[in-house]
Design goal:
By secondary structure, the chain is mainly alpha-helical. Helices cover 78% and strands 0% of the residues. The chain contains 3 helices and no strands. Helix 2 packs antiparallel against helix 3. The longest helix is centred in the N-terminal third of the chain and has 21 residues. It is globular and about 30 Å long. It starts with a helix and ends with a helix.
Length: 65
Amino acid sequence: MEFNEERAGMISSAIGLAVVNLVAYGVPINRDNLVDELERVRRETGNVIGKGVNRDAAEIVRKGM
């Protein structure tokens, strides 16, 4: 999977936000919880780009790439 610089930045921001949310909720940070949080945010996001970014971020975390 190859991304341009802008898309990679958005994906890293999505992962960072998911980590911050998990810390704020007191949830342990592990692969499953991170994927669940990224998918939760994806479902709540209203725009197509945001959904795609969170989907791609969840896939990267899930596969460990």
